[in-house]
Each structure stands twice: as C-alpha cells, then as structure tokens.
Automatic annotation (TrEMBL):
Residue stretches making up the Ig-like domain: 17-136
Signal recorded as keyword: yes
Name by which UniProt lists this protein: Myelin protein P0 isoform X2
InterPro entries reported for this sequence: Ig-like_dom, Ig-like_dom_sf, Ig-like_fold, Ig_sub, Ig_V-set, Myelin_P0-rel
Designated gene of the protein: mpz
Amino acid sequence: MLTFVALASVLLLGIVPEQTEAISIYTGWERHALLGSDVRLSCSFFSWRGTSDDVTFSWTYRPDGSRDSISIFHYTSGQAYVDNKGPFRDRVEFVGNPGKRDGSILIKNLDYNDNGTFTCDAKNPPDIVGRPSSVRLLVFETVPIQAGVITGAIIGVVLGLLVLIVVIYYLMRFLVARRVFSLSVSKHGKKKREGTPARQIKV
C-alpha cells in the first residue's frame, strides 16, 4: 500500500528520481622519473553527463611493500586540500582542470621513498560509482631504457637478419643459375664444333 502511494505521489508531482550511471576513471599505468625532479600524475574520467559543480577528486598513496594507503589530496566544492603532515608535505600541487574532468597532481622534488602506487578516485554527482584507477611511480637516479625500446630494437635486428638471409638466398640462386647457364652454353658450343667435319685443303 505504501509503495502504491509513493508511486502515485511521484506521478502526480512529477518527481522522478535522478538515475546514476557509472563513470570510468583513467590514469597512466606506470611513470618513471628522476631523483629530485617533478612528475605529473594524470587523472581524468568519462561520464555521460556534463561535469557537475560538485565534482570531486581524491588521491591516495601506498608505498612499495606496504598494504596501507594514506590520503594525500582531495578536491571538492572548488577547493583543493593537500595533506600538510604526511611524506608529501609541501610537495603536492593541483595542476588539473575540474571543468575539463582533469584531476592531475604534481609531485615535486622526488625521493626514492616516493616509490609506490598512487590511486585516483573521481565523483561526478549524481554519478558516483566508478572504479578508482592506479599508477605506479618508480624513481631512478637515471631513467632506464624502457622495455618497449628494447623490444623494438630486437624486432628491428631480427627483421634485418631475415632481409639479409633472403637477399643472400636469391643472390646464391642467381649465381648458381648463371653458372649453370654458362656451362650449358659452353657444352653446347663444344658439341657443335666437334660435329662439324674438317675441310680439306685443295692443292
């Protein structure tokens, strides 16, 4: 009975509950950075709705080898709140643009202790259901050659060897065919000379 009354009230008053939809959150997968440098950690989201005035972004950090995460940044109601007591005190800067669904942050003066996983969560009310996205930060004294570059070099070498093998193969076939042709012409000419009777010289 109460359910019927509620539905009737909705129809009569024209009140329709606003439906929520899931949003998709994106960050990079892994970032490499130099010791003492700054690194931008990007975070954006996709939603079928326009960007809400109540959009929020939250960043947490989990050090390598730890199971616990700490909050390092939160954006809500047009204000950015940075953790001023943790390991990133005075080193986190908001460089995103909420109006463009960008919740990126900048980590300054990187240290080896900053290695870990950074997770971004975003809400675009009424769409508040979305799976947070994580990016792993690796700090090096010198940035290593990425696996993609090594893989590309290996593929290039292999392709080069294959091309060289094909060229050698066709060159050998050409040389063999040329040799066979020369021998055939030489043998044919010799038989022709042997089959021709010698002319007698008249005195």
